[in-house]
Design a protein that fits this description.
By secondary structure, the chain is α/β, with parallel strands linked by helices. It has eleven helices and 18 strands.
């Protein structure tokens, strides 16, 4: 049985590994000319670690959470208080880089990988899925997996236009790597400056400089994304003190940044015939959930299990796979909306609720002696 996997990201490589384990022969096509490296902060929760172990790549995965990390709530004037943040969530997610996860998967991959190629048409019949490619070729497969991200080509070809499935959050993010820790903070400090409609987060690693994340709400996301990222972010955070000036200077000097909208993908079905969507292409949870890499590997491992359990009945395998994954994804999509208000509250009322919740949680979780911990952001 041959499967085409579109996309050489976390979900795509995980799917290819799972397919190989189920006795399939995967072919991966990636529109980029070469494999991406680097990337920005990724949280890996316990279910994601278990999925990585099932795929045989956990031991190769470079985890970077500082052993002694602390979280500081910082206000726009530079005041700070001990608090809790992303790395302090239940389950204690591991901090790593997208590129670290992809490197571990790449090392465990056994597949035909083709760069600079993408599908341009998919036709299905009883014999399988017949795919036309951008290089002029056409091949037939027993299964096609779209693991090509939020703006999936496979989804558009097989299910319809993006507008049917993307659900906006009126949020924009800009993330990039700093060259040094924020002055006045240690290399293991997590920083959260959170105001109504805008926030700055700094995520630490144990063996490299931190990642900065600007996240803010806008009424017109499309118009915002047409702007120069550095100018757009500078205008939005003008006049703020604390770690903001250092982060803005780091953004101006950064060789690259990710500047994009925050959207979920909502679909009633993740497969149609012999075409299946996986990861962000199927259920993008948004980066606020912190579960993107984890659910990509979880979905791949579950697909491998379903195909192994139904080796002669692909439709039955896909039905079983979706039945298993749907409740988990629905839960995390709902939770992501709550977490989104934690990352960047949409209004003053939600900001006040966030402050009360984090304040109480910090009092319960922090063990260090001293005055009561608040969240001033």
């Amino acid at each position: 049985m041959r499967a085409l996997v579109v996309g050489l990201g976390v979900a795509g490589m995980a799917a290819a590994i799972a397919l190989s384990g189920a006795g399939w022969k995967p072919v991966i096509v990636e529109r980029a000319a070469q494999r991406r490296t680097g990337g920005y902060f990724v949280g890996l929760f316990p279910p994601g670690k278990r999925a990585a172990a099932r795929l045989g790549v956990l031991d190769r995965l470079h985890l970077r959470t500082p052993a002694d990390h602390r979280t500081w709530a910082v206000d726009a004037d530079g005041g700070r208080e001990r608090s809790i943040g992303f790395l302090d969530q239940p389950g204690h997610p591991e901090g790593t880089l997208r590129g670290d996860v992809e490197a571990a998967l790449w090392d465990g991959l056994d597949a035909d990988v083709r760069f600079g190629v993408s599908p341009i048409a998919i036709r299905q019949d009883l014999a399988g899925a017949h795919v036309s490619f951008s290089d002029g070729g056409t091949e037939s497969f027993d299964l096609v997996i779209g693991a090509d991200g939020l703006r999936s080509t496979v989804r558009r070809l097989a299910f319809g236009p993006d507008e049917r499935f993307l659900r906006p959050t009126n949020s924009v993010i800009c993330t990039f790597s700093l060259t040094e820790p924020v002055p006045g903070f240690s290399a293991s400090d997590q920083i959260a400056l959170v105001e109504p409609g805008r926030a700055l987060w700094v995520f630490p690693y144990r063996d490299r400089p931190p990642t900065a994340l600007f996240a803010y709400r806008v009424p017109n996301v499309a118009a915002e994304l047409r702007k120069n990222p550095r100018a757009a972010v500078a205008a939005r955070y003008d006049g703020m003190r604390g770690p903001v000036p250092y982060a803005l200077d780091g953004l101006r000097r950064a060789p690259e940044c990710l500047f994009d909208s925050v959207q979920q993908v909502r679909m009633r079905r993740w497969y149609r015939g012999r075409v299946l969507l996986l990861g962000d292409a199927a259920w993008c949870l948004t980066l606020y959930s912190g579960m993107g890499a984890s659910t990509g590997m979880m979905g791949a491992a579950a697909l491998g299990d379903a195909l192994t359990a139904h080796p002669a009945d692909v439709p039955a395998a896909l039905r079983e796979w979706e039945r298993q994954m749907r409740p988990t994804i629905r839960t995390h999509q709902l939770i992501a909306h709550v977490k989104g208000q934690g990352f960047v509250p949409s209004n003053p009322f939600n900001h006040g609720v966030r402050r009360l919740v984090v304040n109480q949680a910090a009092k319960l979780l922090l063990r260090s002696p001293g005055p009561a911990v608040g969240l001033s952001g």
